[in-house]
Amino acid sequence: MEPNYWISLIGNLGFPIVVTFYLLMRLERNFNQLEQVVEELIMEIRRNK
């Protein structure tokens, strides 16, 4: 996302809301990666039984 987009959001919504939104977006990516790794681990465990 472009810097102008973030500046516009800060002006319209306020800094705390924009920071919260940004952090939630980053956490979502991490949770998706974690979910994929857990699924791979489950498949590997099932294969080794």
Keywords, separated by commas or semicolons:
49 residues, mainly alpha, 0% strand, 90% helix
Please provide a written account of the structure.
The chain is mainly α and about 50 residues long. Helix content is about 90%, strand content about 0%. It contains 2 helices and no strands. It has helices spanning about 5-15, 15-45. The longest helix is centred in the middle third of the chain and has 33 residues, at about 15-45. The chain is rod-shaped, with a radius of gyration of 18 Å. The termini are far apart. The model has no long low-confidence stretch (mean pLDDT about 90).
Largest sheet data: none
Taking all residues together, what is the mean pLDDT?
A: 88
Low-confidence blocks of residues: none
Task: Give the proportion of residues in helices.
Answer: over 70%
Oligomer: single chain
What letter string, H or E per element, gives the SSE order? HH
Helix tally? 2
Question: Helix and strand layout, with pairings?
Answer:
Elements: H1 3-13, H2 15-47
Helix pairs in contact: 1-2
Please provide a brief summary of the model.
This protein has 49 residues and is mainly α. The protein contains two helices and no strands.
